[in-house]
Amino acid sequence: MSTAVNTGRKAAARRRTKTTTQAAAAQYKIAIKYILCGALLLLGIVFMAAYSTNLQQQNNTLAARNDVLQAEIDSLKEQINDATSIEKVETIATKKYGMVQPDESNYITIRDEKKQGSSLADTIKKEAYN
Fold it and tell me: Coiled-coil ranges per the record (predicted)?
């Protein structure tokens, strides 16, 4: 009987060893899965950081371009204000086109001459050349 008991004990020991080996293999697989998931997570973080850095660089470039364009807009607005100021218009009108400010000596009085048969244009010509 001792042989049968020894054989049974050996078989039970082999089963325990096999079960222990299978458990160790299952734990090894789980550990590998966790390591792979961690590695993928870290790799994703690295890629997201690189992408974020790239977006930040593009944002900085666009902000600098926006500042340049805003400075150009401000310069153009100032040029428009200078060109359309009353003083500038008066200077150009008097120097370039010979215009003068109206006073008592440089206006035309139109009399009612319809009774005499002359038109408005004739009246203006007559007054302008007299």
Answer: 52-86
